[in-house]
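Apologies for my clumsy wording, but are you able to produce some protein sequence, whichever is easiest, and the tokens describing how it folds?
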Amino acid sequence: MNVLKKIITDKDHAGLQFLKYVTCGGFALTVDMFVAFLIAWLWLPALKGTELFVKLFHAQCTDVPEGTRTVNFIIGSIIAFLISNLVAYILNVRFVFKAGKHSRLKEIGLFYAVSGISIGIGVALGALVVWLNFSYDWSYVTKALSAMMINYTVRKHFIFHG
């Protein structure tokens, strides 16, 4: 039990830190996906009948023009980002990084700013994928991978105490 507690609370070991970052990021990504796909299914139609989500959950989807689907993807992504980024911040402070390099308000602001820039790039790439008529699944993967590549390094070196 002490070994597990050490793994969970240790914020200095680079390997453990990255493993916890990926785990916490996976949880935040799950929240983001859940919110984004629910919005695309129930509120702002952006899914096609060929989507994995639609097939897995036998969801009914509304056919909409590609332009509308693209705009709905962007709006849904923004809403999902606001919610999942709060989850990511809480998990990162609790389990991954040492807070206190900046005031709490500045730290949260920087966290959202860096995430916003990286997800903005991801949403643009994802919207391009939708516009090119690929599936929502691929646009989502494109968005997530491009954001992940930026966040860890910037958060570790500029926002928190390594």
